[in-house]
Design goal:
about 80 residues, mainly alpha, 4 helices
Amino acid sequence: MAETKNLSRVEEMDASFERRARANGRTFEQEVEFLLERKQPLTPEERVATIRYLHSRCNGIQPSLTLDEIREGLM
């Protein structure tokens, strides 16, 4: 039951971001970038919506780096 409540709250926040973006003449992605660039602390709901957006841009679980890839990054 708690999952359903949380899910609807997140969906509610996504819809809020969509409305806010349309009102400001931006896309959802542009609105998220604007909110991140303004460097003000996000509300907990804004954080959840931002994280959901960023997760939606990934294709599932990303593979872990190999030791060689980690070493290359350190050089």
